[in-house]
Hints:
By secondary structure, this protein is α+β, with helices and mostly antiparallel strands. It is built from 2 helices and 5 strands; from the N terminus they run βαβββαβ. The protein has a single domain, classed as Glutaredoxin. Helices cover 22% and strands 20% of the residues. Helix 1 crosses helix 2.
Amino acid sequence: MSTTITVCETCKRTNWNAEIDNKTDGEVLADLIESMSDEAPNINIRRHACLMGCDFACNVAIQSEDKLNYVLGNFSPNIESAKGIIEYAKLHNASDKGQVPFRDWPKEIKGHFRARLPVLGNK
């Protein structure tokens, strides 16, 4: 079983400017995460239009079947954020139930959690 990072590719932070920025902030973050995919062979990365967290752009979801799922937001579209997201996804993937102890969280993702979603089904 693998963990999937879903990146909102339509996210635009408040300082985004259509006249000078040729990509959305979400596209930039997705590009950075995808460029690191070789470092995380058990992590799938996909893009999705709008995760509906516009007040907290840039948004991602960390998801896996039969595990807790998480929505994170308010990232800067930079390499540090991308590294932290990838590192957390690797820890999520290695966990039995999707819970990663706070002490193990990468510093780049602390303060970015928006929601924890329970496992679907009877578990």
